[in-house]
Amino acid sequence: MEAFFIELLKEYGYIILFLWCIMEGEMALIMAGILAHTTHMHITLAIFVAGIGGFVGDQIYFYLGRYNKKYIAKKLHTQRRKFAIAHILLKKYGWPIIFLQRYMYGFRVIIPMCIGLTGYSAKKYAFINLISAWCWAAITIIPAWILGEHILDILNKAKEHWYVAVPVVAIFLGVLLFAFKRIENKILNERRHRNHAVSNS
Questions:
Q1: pLDDT value for 134
Q2: pLDDT tens-digit series, residues 47-57
Q3: Cβ within 8 Å of residue 177, ≥6 positions away
Q4: Buried (b) or exposed (e) across 83-109, using 16+ Cβ within 10 A?
Q5: If you ran DSSP here, which 8-state letter would residue 102 be given?
Q6: In sequence order, which residues have a C-beta less than 8 Å from that of residue 64 and are 6 or more positions away?
Q7: Which residue among 5, 16, 85, 128 has its CA within the 20 to 30 Å range from the CA of 34?
């Protein structure tokens, strides 16, 4: 199975990388870095393709926000809290949030949609988004390329000692999720206090 997967990546690696980065990406970027380390991919081309994939994915969400009211209404119904936080972040930070959103768990889809809902220039968004996507790809692929041997060693050890690796990964993800929830609550609480202060003034 592993041999088949490796052969698949050798043959269609850049296509898989492009499609994977449209959907999400961090794991795809790490895989691309490892494949570049093992000479199955060219690092510059991997960064270029991954960046284009990330760019296309966010452009899709941006135009969904701009032109698909039904989809947005459905999303608002289930993700109202995240839309509220995204709106606050956009007002507070402006265009730099296009760079930051790629590293914010749960906001990769929401923030491009929120920007699409505003009157923000589509050309300006596309330009910033493209630069952001290439930076995102480079920032993740290059360390994975440099540390490829160490990452492969860790993966082999995790495979051998899965009973230790699984709880460690679960704890790490749990801590990460908890941290993001704390940040979200802080952002919403700050807005409530601000609105309360304005209404009492």
A1: 94
A2: 999 999 999 99
A3: 105
A4: bbbbbbbbeeeeeebbbebbebebbbb
A5: G
A6: 71, 72, 113, 116
A7: 128
